[in-house]
Amino acid sequence: MKKNIEDIVYWMLLTHESWAIYIAATATGLCYVGSQCATFEELAIWVEKRLPTYRLSEDEDRLKPYAIELIDYLEGRRKKFTAPMDLHGTVFQHAVWKVLQDIPYGQTVSYTEIAEQIQKPNAVRAVGTAIGANPVLITVPCHRVIAKSGKLTGYRGGLEMKEQLLKLERS
After folding, report:
1. Annotation marks residue 142 as catalytic
2. What pairing do the DSSP bridges indicate for beta strands 109-110 and 19-25?
């Protein structure tokens, strides 16, 4: 069966200073931003699980606009992302990810506050799970979510990456 353009996930390894992150997009928009220094396998597993009919194709030219926005962010020149995204998740996950995109640059909120914003105050654990499933780190800023106590908690990219991103936004 012939695949068409909609069945491709384009990817590249974005390297900038100490950062090495796999990013990927469909014809619709950015669909994946990986963990700092993760292997290609993390991306391949995500595509296999979320977009099983798609194939991976390396294409730096297609990903250049996304890479530019991410580099601008990492250099402190960008506070909000404008490139289109193609997020794949449940209705609940989309509701949580939408709230994450509204967290102002340099600020943090708690899991509890997000649960309250989506009008599901008893769903704090489910909110945490949805945040952990966020496929586009940095651009959907789940690093801005912390425990109610103010403590840094889980992050798909690792706590070191979360600390780096929060420090970048504070400077």
Report:
1. yes
2. unpaired
